[in-house]
Design goal:
Elements: H1 17-21, H2 24-33, H3 44-47, E1 62-70, H4 77-91, E2 96-102, H5 109-123, E3 126-131, H6 142-154, E4 162-171, H7 178-190, E5 195-202, E6 214-215, H8 250-257, E7 262-263, E8 271-275, H9 277-280, H10 298-308, E9 314-322, H11 326-336, E10 357-360, E11 368-371
Parallel strand pairs: 1-2, 1-4, 2-3, 5-9
Antiparallel strand pairs: 4-8, 5-6, 5-8, 7-9, 10-11
């Protein structure tokens, strides 16, 4: 199962959405100026090397590709897109590309993005924007539809003039700061990682309301033991232990507690930065489970395929803490800290091999353990290549 808007009614609910949906130009101005976003100042000392200097000449044009799937989130755009625009300005617009698949929103999201495309194109940003009628629903086809949508957002990547170390920054509909995005890019480079993920949170309203932040993307995330980030008893599916993270992974637990990046088998967690190389080389893409394969989310399958192709340097950056609306985003930052509160320079001691087995959990009850590479041995991956009307 996925945690989605059907489980919590607090996504995207704090900027006056009626005003924004009826005033696309005003929303655009909020995006471009940072109004409503309360953006953090960028640490130019830490991140300055990510952008070209006056003495730098990059042979290839594109080094950073921001990709998103967005639907019905006009009230989040000032915070989310404002942070992306600020990061793009810092990194250098002509070295950035932006690809968004919008999901036939009726709240003004598409209208704002169309206006934003005009402005960013004038800045020199290559911007792809398309709408898709695909609307993932709960059920067996949900993962397939999500995989197709993510692949559509990545489709322009192969047409770009990419640097060899180009990074793809794939972002959910989260309340992010520019420094969150830059820290992911930085840690991918600094750690020589293949993929790095944030941590995403919510204040769970099931099975009981919680005043403590609860890790959100638990279904697709596995530690280096192949287990959930917190214990979920297979007989009950209970989240009673959801605030005790990495109980059987001492390295991850210690590094999480000190805000230092640590290796995992899989993650997504609201925002990621990963190497464009395996995608450009045709080795991975988003897909859905094969026949007979453990039913799991497309981000977990993406990580599984990265490991299979030799790109297993996957890590969580716990200083990047995200939530799914502006109000909870502010609260999460206050309670768990901003990136600037955890300026780590410690490197990950990478493990070359994945866990032998990984917890298979189509639901939180009835879990079983399977070989991490089940379905991949003597087989090929089925990427999301179906022809779709977008």
């Amino acid at each position: 199962m996925y945690l989605d808007s059907s489980m919590t009614n607090r996504r995207h609910d704090t900027v006056p959405s009626l005003l924004l949906s009826h005033n696309p130009s005003g929303t655009l101005e909020a995006v471009l100026t940072g109004r409503y976003a309360e953006l953090e100042a960028i640490n130019t000392t830490r991140y300055g090397y990510l952008r070209p200097s006056a003495h730098t000449h990059w042979r290839h044009r594109h080094k950073y590709v921001f990709t998103l799937n967005l639907r019905q989130c006009v009230d989040l755009l000032p915070r989310l897109m404002g942070s992306i625009v600020e990061a793009i300005r810092f990194l250098g617009p002509k070295h950035c590309a932006l690809s968004i698949i919008e999901g036939n929103s009726d709240d003004g999201t598409l209208e704002v993005l169309r206006l934003l495309k005009t402005d960013l194109s004038k800045m020199g940003v290559d911007f792809w924007l398309a709408s898709s009628s695909i609307d993932p629903k709960a059920g067996d086809d949900r993962i397939k539809q999500l995989a197709i949508l993510r692949s559509l957002a990545l489709e322009p990547v192969t047409r770009l003039d990419l640097a060899p170390d180009a990074a793809i920054i794939f972002i959910n509909d989260v309340a992010a700061c520019a420094e969150d995005l830059l820290e992911l890019i930085h840690q991918k480079s600094y750690q020589s990682a293949d993929m790095v993920c944030a941590m995403d949170w919510w204040y769970a309203d099931f099975p009981n309301p919680s005043e403590l932040p609860t890790f959100y993307d638990v279904w697709v995330s596995r530690d280096m033991n192949g287990a959930f980030y917190f214990d979920i008893p297979t007989d009950t599916g209970s989240w009673d232990f959801s605030h005790d993270l990495f109980p059987h992974e001492p390295i991850a637990r210690a590094r999480f507690g000190s805000g230092q990046p640590f290796q995992v088998f899989s993650c997504w967690n609201g925002a990621v930065a990963f190497s464009a190389r395996p995608l450009v080389e045709g080795k991975v893409n988003f897909r859905w489970p094969k026949e007979g394969e453990c039913f799991q989310g497309e981000p977990q399958l993406f990580c599984k395929d990265l490991w299979w192709e030799g790109f297993g340097r996957i890590a969580v950056v716990p200083s990047v803490n995200l939530a799914y609306n502006t109000q909870e985003g502010k609260r999460i930052k206050k309670e768990l800290g901003f990136v600037s509160d955890f300026v780590s320079s410690d490197r990950i001691d990478w493990r070359a091999e994945p866990p032998a087995q990984v917890c298979c959990a189509p639901g939180f009850k009835g879990q079983k353990w399977l070989d991490w590479d089940e379905s991949l041995v003597n087989n090929t991956n089925t990427v999301a290549e179906e022809e779709q009307d977008i």
